[in-house]
Each structure stands twice: as structure tokens, then as C-alpha cells.
Design brief:
The protein is mainly alpha-helical. Strands 1-2 form a two-stranded antiparallel sheet. The radius of gyration is 19 Å and the shape is rod-shaped. The protein has 1 helix and 2 strands. The protein starts with 11 loop residues before the first strand and ends with a helix.
Amino acid sequence: MSLTYTHRPGGSAHCPECQQSISRLANICPHCRSDLTANEAWQAQKEKSSAGCAALVVFGILSTGLVGWSVVTFIG
């Protein structure tokens, strides 16, 4: 038996209807075919998670730049 890796952009969460693991960015559950666009809690969770991802990207860029600057200054 082989396991397959499924990339889920934005991470994964549980479908509010069937509780199966799905992408946080999904609008329709691939398991139970529930339309998640009408689910207000799901949509709020999607907006919250995308704001957190943006903050993480900004932090990663800033910290990489700071480390690079520190190395250049140290070697310099």
C-alpha cells in the first residue's frame, strides 16, 4: 500500500459537515460535496487564515534580510 501526498495550499482543516480533512481554501468539500460558500464560520476562518499567512510571509522575508545583513556586517 502506498501513501500519496496531497498538497493543500493554506493548510488543511476539517469540513464543518463531514469532518474530513480538506484544504482551508476550499469552497466545496471534495468528500461530501457540501457548498461551504454559504457557511459563515468557514468563510471567516478562511479570511483569518489568509491574514496569518501574509504575516508569516512578511516575517520570513524580514528575518531573512536581517540574517543576511548580519552575516555581511560580520564578515565585512
